[in-house]
Amino acid sequence: MRRVKIAVWLIAFIIAYSVMSLFVLNHYNEELKGRIENIQSVYESGDTEKALALSNELNVYWHRYERAVTIFIHDGALEEINSSIAKITPFISNENSELIAEIQSIYHRLDQMYEEEFPAWYNIL
Amino acid sequence: MTVVFIRAVILYCVLIFSVRLMGKKQIGELQPSELAITILISNIATLPVEDISIPLITGLLPVLTLVCLDVLMSWVSMKSRKMRGVMSGEPVVIVSNGQIDQQKLYNLRFTTDDLMEAIRSEGIFDLDEVQFAIVETTGKVSVYPKFYARPVTNNDMDIKNQSTDPPAVVVQDGCIMESSLKRLGLGTGWLETILKENNTETKEIFIMTAESAGKYKIIKKELSHDSKGAKVIEKS
Protein backbone atom coordinates (compact mmCIF):
# COMPACT_ATOMS: atom_id res chain seq x y z
CA MET A 1 0.00 0.00 0.00
CA ARG A 2 2.95 2.31 0.72
CA ARG A 3 4.18 1.79 -2.84
CA VAL A 4 0.76 2.71 -4.22
CA LYS A 5 0.75 5.90 -2.15
CA ILE A 6 4.25 6.83 -3.40
CA ALA A 7 3.14 6.11 -6.98
CA VAL A 8 0.03 8.31 -6.61
CA TRP A 9 2.13 11.14 -5.14
CA LEU A 10 4.70 10.81 -7.90
CA ILE A 11 2.03 10.88 -10.62
CA ALA A 12 0.48 13.96 -8.98
CA PHE A 13 3.93 15.59 -8.82
CA ILE A 14 4.65 14.77 -12.47
CA ILE A 15 1.30 16.24 -13.59
CA ALA A 16 1.87 19.36 -11.45
CA TYR A 17 5.42 19.72 -12.79
CA SER A 18 4.22 19.35 -16.40
CA VAL A 19 1.48 21.95 -15.97
CA MET A 20 3.87 24.28 -14.15
CA SER A 21 6.47 23.94 -16.91
CA LEU A 22 3.83 25.07 -19.43
CA PHE A 23 2.99 28.11 -17.31
CA VAL A 24 6.68 28.94 -16.82
CA LEU A 25 7.31 28.63 -20.57
CA ASN A 26 4.30 30.81 -21.39
CA HIS A 27 5.32 33.44 -18.82
CA TYR A 28 8.92 33.64 -20.08
CA ASN A 29 7.74 33.66 -23.72
CA GLU A 30 5.35 36.57 -23.09
CA GLU A 31 8.06 38.55 -21.29
CA LEU A 32 10.56 37.88 -24.09
CA LYS A 33 8.06 38.81 -26.78
CA GLY A 34 7.19 42.03 -24.92
CA ARG A 35 10.85 43.02 -24.74
CA ILE A 36 11.43 42.26 -28.44
CA GLU A 37 8.26 44.19 -29.38
CA ASN A 38 9.58 47.14 -27.38
CA ILE A 39 12.94 47.01 -29.19
CA GLN A 40 11.16 46.88 -32.54
CA SER A 41 8.94 49.91 -31.79
CA VAL A 42 11.89 51.95 -30.42
CA TYR A 43 13.99 51.01 -33.48
CA GLU A 44 11.18 51.92 -35.87
CA SER A 45 10.79 55.32 -34.14
CA GLY A 46 14.45 55.94 -35.03
CA ASP A 47 16.01 55.84 -31.56
CA THR A 48 18.90 53.43 -32.30
CA GLU A 49 20.77 54.23 -29.04
CA LYS A 50 17.80 53.23 -26.89
CA ALA A 51 17.14 50.20 -29.09
CA LEU A 52 20.77 49.08 -28.54
CA ALA A 53 20.45 49.52 -24.77
CA LEU A 54 17.20 47.50 -24.80
CA SER A 55 18.87 44.86 -26.96
CA ASN A 56 21.65 44.45 -24.37
CA GLU A 57 19.02 44.06 -21.67
CA LEU A 58 17.32 41.48 -23.87
CA ASN A 59 20.55 39.47 -24.05
CA VAL A 60 20.79 39.42 -20.27
CA TYR A 61 17.14 38.36 -19.99
CA TRP A 62 17.63 35.71 -22.66
CA HIS A 63 20.36 34.00 -20.60
CA ARG A 64 18.00 33.92 -17.63
CA TYR A 65 15.26 32.51 -19.88
CA GLU A 66 17.57 29.87 -21.31
CA ARG A 67 18.69 28.73 -17.86
CA ALA A 68 15.09 28.40 -16.63
CA VAL A 69 13.67 26.70 -19.69
CA THR A 70 16.56 24.37 -20.55
CA ILE A 71 15.37 22.06 -17.74
CA PHE A 72 12.47 20.88 -19.89
CA ILE A 73 13.14 22.10 -23.45
CA HIS A 74 15.47 20.37 -25.89
CA ASP A 75 18.69 22.32 -26.47
CA GLY A 76 18.16 22.31 -30.24
CA ALA A 77 15.03 24.52 -30.04
CA LEU A 78 16.78 27.03 -27.77
CA GLU A 79 19.90 27.09 -29.92
CA GLU A 80 17.91 28.40 -32.92
CA ILE A 81 16.40 31.26 -30.89
CA ASN A 82 19.81 31.92 -29.32
CA SER A 83 21.39 32.56 -32.71
CA SER A 84 18.53 34.89 -33.73
CA ILE A 85 18.77 36.88 -30.47
CA ALA A 86 22.52 37.23 -30.96
CA LYS A 87 21.88 38.90 -34.34
CA ILE A 88 19.59 41.63 -32.96
CA THR A 89 22.30 43.95 -31.56
CA PRO A 90 24.51 43.93 -34.71
CA PHE A 91 21.44 44.38 -36.92
CA ILE A 92 20.37 47.45 -34.91
CA SER A 93 23.87 49.01 -35.00
CA ASN A 94 24.17 48.37 -38.75
CA GLU A 95 20.54 49.35 -39.34
CA ASN A 96 20.14 46.09 -41.21
CA SER A 97 16.80 45.57 -42.96
CA GLU A 98 16.78 41.92 -41.88
CA LEU A 99 16.11 42.92 -38.26
CA ILE A 100 12.32 42.73 -38.61
CA ALA A 101 12.55 39.35 -40.37
CA GLU A 102 14.80 38.03 -37.57
CA ILE A 103 12.38 39.31 -34.92
CA GLN A 104 9.49 37.62 -36.74
CA SER A 105 11.45 34.37 -36.81
CA ILE A 106 12.01 34.61 -33.02
CA TYR A 107 8.24 35.09 -32.49
CA HIS A 108 7.56 32.12 -34.72
CA ARG A 109 10.06 29.87 -32.91
CA LEU A 110 8.78 30.88 -29.48
CA ASP A 111 5.20 30.10 -30.52
CA GLN A 112 6.29 26.83 -32.06
CA MET A 113 8.21 25.85 -28.90
CA TYR A 114 5.14 26.49 -26.75
CA GLU A 115 2.86 24.68 -29.18
CA GLU A 116 5.13 21.63 -29.16
CA GLU A 117 4.92 21.48 -25.38
CA PHE A 118 1.15 21.94 -25.30
CA PRO A 119 -0.67 18.65 -24.64
CA ALA A 120 -2.80 18.78 -27.80
CA TRP A 121 -3.77 15.58 -29.65
CA TYR A 122 -1.57 16.45 -32.66
CA ASN A 123 1.47 16.64 -30.35
CA ILE A 124 0.59 13.51 -28.43
CA LEU A 125 0.01 11.43 -31.55
CA MET B 1 32.23 14.75 -19.35
CA THR B 2 31.38 15.87 -15.84
CA VAL B 3 27.81 16.50 -16.95
CA VAL B 4 27.54 12.94 -18.28
CA PHE B 5 29.00 11.58 -15.03
CA ILE B 6 26.58 13.55 -12.83
CA ARG B 7 23.65 12.60 -15.07
CA ALA B 8 24.64 8.93 -14.84
CA VAL B 9 24.79 9.17 -11.03
CA ILE B 10 21.35 10.81 -10.87
CA LEU B 11 19.89 8.24 -13.27
CA TYR B 12 21.43 5.42 -11.26
CA CYS B 13 19.72 6.69 -8.10
CA VAL B 14 16.38 7.13 -9.91
CA LEU B 15 16.60 3.66 -11.45
CA ILE B 16 17.41 2.03 -8.10
CA PHE B 17 14.42 3.88 -6.61
CA SER B 18 12.23 2.83 -9.55
CA VAL B 19 13.21 -0.85 -9.32
CA ARG B 20 12.58 -0.80 -5.56
CA LEU B 21 9.23 0.86 -6.16
CA MET B 22 8.27 -1.86 -8.64
CA GLY B 23 8.86 -4.46 -5.94
CA LYS B 24 10.78 -7.69 -5.67
CA LYS B 25 10.38 -9.90 -8.67
CA GLN B 26 12.88 -11.90 -10.64
CA ILE B 27 13.08 -11.57 -14.41
CA GLY B 28 11.56 -15.04 -14.88
CA GLU B 29 8.61 -14.16 -12.67
CA LEU B 30 7.71 -10.91 -14.44
CA GLN B 31 4.33 -10.64 -16.09
CA PRO B 32 4.52 -9.81 -19.82
CA SER B 33 3.49 -6.19 -19.13
CA GLU B 34 6.14 -5.84 -16.40
CA LEU B 35 8.82 -7.28 -18.68
CA ALA B 36 7.85 -4.81 -21.44
CA ILE B 37 8.04 -1.91 -18.96
CA THR B 38 11.43 -3.07 -17.65
CA ILE B 39 12.87 -3.18 -21.18
CA LEU B 40 11.27 0.16 -22.04
CA ILE B 41 12.72 1.82 -18.93
CA SER B 42 16.22 0.57 -19.67
CA ASN B 43 15.95 2.04 -23.18
CA ILE B 44 14.56 5.41 -22.07
CA ALA B 45 17.12 5.78 -19.30
CA THR B 46 20.05 5.63 -21.73
CA LEU B 47 18.84 8.57 -23.88
CA PRO B 48 19.64 11.56 -21.59
CA VAL B 49 22.96 9.99 -20.58
CA GLU B 50 24.12 9.58 -24.17
CA ASP B 51 22.83 12.92 -25.43
CA ILE B 52 23.34 15.88 -23.10
CA SER B 53 21.21 18.15 -25.32
CA ILE B 54 18.17 16.24 -24.03
CA PRO B 55 17.00 17.63 -20.67
CA LEU B 56 17.51 15.02 -17.94
CA ILE B 57 13.97 15.54 -16.74
CA THR B 58 12.56 14.34 -20.09
CA GLY B 59 14.36 11.06 -19.45
CA LEU B 60 13.36 10.76 -15.80
CA LEU B 61 9.72 11.69 -16.31
CA PRO B 62 8.77 8.73 -18.54
CA VAL B 63 10.74 6.31 -16.34
CA LEU B 64 8.92 7.42 -13.20
CA THR B 65 5.57 7.59 -15.01
CA LEU B 66 5.91 4.02 -16.32
CA VAL B 67 6.97 2.70 -12.91
CA CYS B 68 4.12 4.50 -11.14
CA LEU B 69 1.61 3.23 -13.69
CA ASP B 70 2.95 -0.29 -13.24
CA VAL B 71 2.57 -0.03 -9.45
CA LEU B 72 -0.96 1.38 -9.80
CA MET B 73 -1.99 -1.22 -12.36
CA SER B 74 -0.69 -4.07 -10.20
CA TRP B 75 -2.69 -2.63 -7.31
CA VAL B 76 -5.81 -2.45 -9.47
CA SER B 77 -5.13 -6.01 -10.71
CA MET B 78 -4.85 -7.15 -7.12
CA LYS B 79 -8.25 -5.65 -6.33
CA SER B 80 -10.08 -6.69 -9.50
CA ARG B 81 -10.02 -10.20 -10.97
CA LYS B 82 -11.31 -8.86 -14.28
CA MET B 83 -8.46 -6.38 -14.49
CA ARG B 84 -6.01 -9.14 -13.60
CA GLY B 85 -7.28 -11.11 -16.57
CA VAL B 86 -6.86 -8.11 -18.87
CA MET B 87 -3.38 -7.26 -17.60
CA SER B 88 -1.84 -10.70 -17.15
CA GLY B 89 -4.17 -13.11 -18.95
CA GLU B 90 -5.38 -16.40 -17.48
CA PRO B 91 -3.43 -19.61 -16.87
CA VAL B 92 -4.19 -22.21 -19.54
CA VAL B 93 -4.49 -25.94 -18.85
CA ILE B 94 -2.66 -27.82 -21.59
CA VAL B 95 -2.70 -31.33 -20.07
CA SER B 96 -5.62 -32.60 -18.06
CA ASN B 97 -6.19 -36.20 -16.90
CA GLY B 98 -3.04 -37.10 -18.83
CA GLN B 99 -4.60 -35.87 -22.09
CA ILE B 100 -2.90 -33.11 -24.10
CA ASP B 101 -5.26 -30.36 -25.24
CA GLN B 102 -3.90 -29.79 -28.73
CA GLN B 103 -6.26 -26.92 -29.49
CA LYS B 104 -5.00 -24.99 -26.46
CA LEU B 105 -1.40 -25.67 -27.49
CA TYR B 106 -2.20 -24.38 -30.95
CA ASN B 107 -3.88 -21.27 -29.53
CA LEU B 108 -0.82 -20.58 -27.38
CA ARG B 109 1.47 -21.26 -30.37
CA PHE B 110 3.17 -23.91 -28.24
CA THR B 111 5.09 -26.48 -30.25
CA THR B 112 5.57 -30.09 -29.09
CA ASP B 113 9.22 -29.17 -28.55
CA ASP B 114 8.17 -26.38 -26.18
CA LEU B 115 5.92 -28.79 -24.30
CA MET B 116 8.62 -31.46 -23.99
CA GLU B 117 11.20 -28.87 -22.93
CA ALA B 118 8.83 -27.55 -20.27
CA ILE B 119 8.09 -30.97 -18.75
CA ARG B 120 11.76 -31.95 -18.90
CA SER B 121 12.63 -28.80 -16.94
CA GLU B 122 10.28 -30.14 -14.23
CA GLY B 123 12.32 -33.37 -14.09
CA ILE B 124 9.86 -35.49 -16.10
CA PHE B 125 11.11 -37.18 -19.26
CA ASP B 126 8.11 -39.36 -20.09
CA LEU B 127 4.93 -37.69 -21.30
CA ASP B 128 2.97 -40.63 -19.84
CA GLU B 129 3.92 -39.46 -16.36
CA VAL B 130 2.15 -36.10 -16.73
CA GLN B 131 -1.25 -35.94 -15.07
CA PHE B 132 -1.82 -32.21 -15.38
CA ALA B 133 0.08 -29.25 -16.86
CA ILE B 134 -0.76 -25.60 -16.89
CA VAL B 135 0.81 -22.60 -18.62
CA GLU B 136 1.03 -19.84 -16.02
CA THR B 137 0.46 -16.18 -16.86
CA THR B 138 4.25 -15.65 -16.77
CA GLY B 139 4.64 -18.29 -19.51
CA LYS B 140 6.11 -20.87 -17.14
CA VAL B 141 4.68 -24.39 -17.39
CA SER B 142 3.77 -26.07 -14.09
CA VAL B 143 3.53 -29.86 -14.22
CA TYR B 144 1.76 -32.23 -11.82
CA PRO B 145 2.93 -35.81 -12.29
CA LYS B 146 0.74 -38.93 -12.13
CA PHE B 147 0.49 -40.60 -8.74
CA TYR B 148 3.06 -43.34 -9.46
CA ALA B 149 5.61 -40.76 -10.65
CA ARG B 150 5.36 -38.42 -7.65
CA PRO B 151 8.22 -38.40 -5.14
CA VAL B 152 7.53 -40.08 -1.79
CA THR B 153 6.89 -37.57 0.99
CA ASN B 154 7.21 -37.84 4.77
CA ASN B 155 3.43 -37.92 4.87
CA ASP B 156 3.35 -40.94 2.52
CA MET B 157 5.84 -42.68 4.80
CA ASP B 158 3.84 -41.61 7.88
CA ILE B 159 6.89 -39.90 9.41
CA LYS B 160 5.69 -37.40 11.98
CA ASN B 161 7.64 -34.36 13.08
CA GLN B 162 6.97 -30.76 13.97
CA SER B 163 7.25 -28.24 11.13
CA THR B 164 9.54 -25.38 12.07
CA ASP B 165 10.91 -22.39 10.23
CA PRO B 166 14.43 -22.77 8.85
CA PRO B 167 17.37 -21.24 10.79
CA ALA B 168 17.81 -17.48 10.38
CA VAL B 169 21.05 -15.50 10.32
CA VAL B 170 21.21 -13.58 13.62
CA VAL B 171 24.81 -12.31 13.43
CA GLN B 172 26.43 -11.48 10.11
CA ASP B 173 30.04 -10.40 9.91
CA GLY B 174 29.95 -9.04 13.47
CA CYS B 175 26.59 -7.26 13.05
CA ILE B 176 23.51 -8.30 15.01
CA MET B 177 20.44 -8.83 12.79
CA GLU B 178 17.80 -7.58 15.19
CA SER B 179 14.92 -8.19 12.77
CA SER B 180 15.84 -11.91 12.59
CA LEU B 181 16.08 -12.19 16.39
CA LYS B 182 12.69 -10.52 16.71
CA ARG B 183 11.14 -12.85 14.11
CA LEU B 184 12.48 -15.89 15.98
CA GLY B 185 11.18 -14.48 19.27
CA LEU B 186 14.63 -14.67 20.88
CA GLY B 187 15.78 -11.09 21.50
CA THR B 188 19.21 -9.59 22.15
CA GLY B 189 19.18 -10.85 25.76
CA TRP B 190 19.24 -14.46 24.50
CA LEU B 191 22.08 -13.62 22.13
CA GLU B 192 24.14 -12.00 24.88
CA THR B 193 23.69 -15.09 27.09
CA ILE B 194 24.81 -17.42 24.30
CA LEU B 195 27.83 -15.26 23.55
CA LYS B 196 28.76 -15.23 27.24
CA GLU B 197 28.36 -19.01 27.48
CA ASN B 198 30.71 -19.47 24.55
CA ASN B 199 33.08 -16.78 25.75
CA THR B 200 32.89 -14.83 22.50
CA GLU B 201 31.83 -11.42 21.18
CA THR B 202 29.73 -10.41 18.19
CA LYS B 203 32.72 -8.80 16.44
CA GLU B 204 34.47 -12.20 16.43
CA ILE B 205 31.57 -13.92 14.65
CA PHE B 206 31.56 -14.46 10.91
CA ILE B 207 28.05 -15.91 10.83
CA MET B 208 25.61 -17.16 13.45
CA THR B 209 22.32 -18.86 12.67
CA ALA B 210 19.55 -19.73 15.12
CA GLU B 211 16.15 -21.39 15.27
CA SER B 212 13.18 -20.38 17.37
CA ALA B 213 13.72 -23.48 19.57
CA GLY B 214 17.09 -22.03 20.61
CA LYS B 215 19.28 -24.25 18.42
CA TYR B 216 22.19 -22.28 17.04
CA LYS B 217 25.42 -22.46 15.08
CA ILE B 218 28.32 -20.01 15.34
CA ILE B 219 31.12 -19.77 12.79
CA LYS B 220 33.90 -17.55 14.06
CA LYS B 221 35.97 -15.26 11.87
CA GLU B 222 39.28 -16.66 10.63
CA LEU B 223 42.02 -14.72 12.37
CA SER B 224 44.63 -15.05 9.62
CA HIS B 225 45.09 -16.55 6.18
CA ASP B 226 47.28 -19.28 7.72
CA SER B 227 44.51 -20.69 9.90
CA LYS B 228 43.21 -24.01 8.71
CA GLY B 229 39.54 -23.16 9.09
CA ALA B 230 37.09 -21.12 11.08
CA LYS B 231 36.08 -22.31 14.55
CA VAL B 232 32.54 -23.67 14.60
CA ILE B 233 30.35 -23.79 17.72
CA GLU B 234 27.09 -25.68 17.47
CA LYS B 235 24.25 -26.37 19.87
CA SER B 236 21.39 -28.70 18.98
Set out the fold topology.
The complex is a heterodimer of chains A (125) and B (236).
Chain A lengths: L1 H43 L3 H22 L5 H19 L5 H19 L3 H4 L1
Chain B lengths: L1 H21 L9 H19 L5 H24 L1 H8 L3 E5 L2 E2 L1 H6 L4 H10 L8 E6 L5 E5 L22 E5 L2 E2 L1 H7 L2 H11 L7 E6 L5 E5 L11 E4 L1
Antiparallel strand pairs in B: 1-2, 1-3, 3-4, 5-6, 5-7, 7-8, 8-9
Describe this protein with a few key phrases.
heterodimer, A: 125 residues, mainly alpha, elongated, B: 236 residues, alpha+beta, CRO Repressor, 3 domains, five-stranded antiparallel β-sheet, four-stranded antiparallel β-sheet, 9 strands, 45% helix
Largest protein interface, residues of each chain: A-B, 17 and 17 residues
Number of helices of chain A: 5
**Radius of gyration of chain A from CA coordinates:** 18 Å
Class derived from helix and strand content of chain B:
alpha+beta
Quaternary structure of the protein: heterodimer
Specify the helix fraction band of chain B: 40-55%
Structure description:
The complex is a heterodimer of chains A (125) and B (236). With 125 residues, chain A is mainly α. Chain A has one domain. Chain A contains five helices and no strands. Chain A is elongated. The model of chain A has no long low-confidence stretch (mean pLDDT 88). In chain B, helix 1 runs antiparallel to helix 2 (32-50), helix 1 (2-22) runs parallel beside helix 3 and helix 3 crosses helix 4. Chain B starts with a helix and ends with a strand. Chain B is flat and about 65 Å long. Chain B has helices at residues 2-22, 32-50, 56-79, 81-88, 102-107, 112-121, 178-184, 187-197; strands at residues 92-96, 99-100, 130-135, 141-145, 168-172, 175-176, 205-210, 216-220, 232-235. The chains are: A mainly alpha (125), B alpha+beta (236). The interface between A and B is medium-sized, with 17 and 17 residues.
